[in-house]
Amino acid sequence: MKTLLNVIWLIFSGLWMALGYAVAGLICFLLIVTIPFGIACFRIASYALWPFGNRVTDRRDAGLASGVGNVIWLVVAGIWITLGHILAGIGFCVTIIGIPFGIAHFKMIPVSLMPLGREIVPSSAPAAYPHYRWG
């Protein structure tokens, strides 16, 4: 079922979103200083192609630099991209058939809002063990 959803998603939304993220990634690579944002754009582009069967997790090794980069991303691009996902999600949810695709847009909001320090993993991958301090 997720393959069918991914193919329909690719036709109606995924290809255009992935191309947009890829172009943004290329621009970030041209502006040398923004290469970490370019890497994040390409990571989001791969997620935008096939969102069903994948999920976003936080990276355990993300540090202060990721937090600072996320604040910069939030101000420069994150808010606008997130508004686009919200509007597209609402547009898809207007029809009953489009609800899974609207939910996929809503699922992309956290990674498009703050992409640094996150990774895309298959949904079948086990969730990371919570951080507990033992002794």
UniProtKB/TrEMBL annotation:
Transmembrane parts of this sequence: 30-50, 62-81, 87-106
Keyword Transmembrane helix carried by entry: yes
Tree of life domain: Bacteria
Keyword terms of this UniProt record: Membrane, Transmembrane, Transmembrane helix
Domain Inner membrane component per the UniProt entry, residue ranges: 4-54, 68-118
NCBIfam families: PRK11770.1-2 (NF008740)
PANTHER family given in the database record: INNER MEMBRANE PROTEIN YCCF
Protein name listed in UniProt: YccF domain-containing protein
Organism: Streptomyces johnsoniae
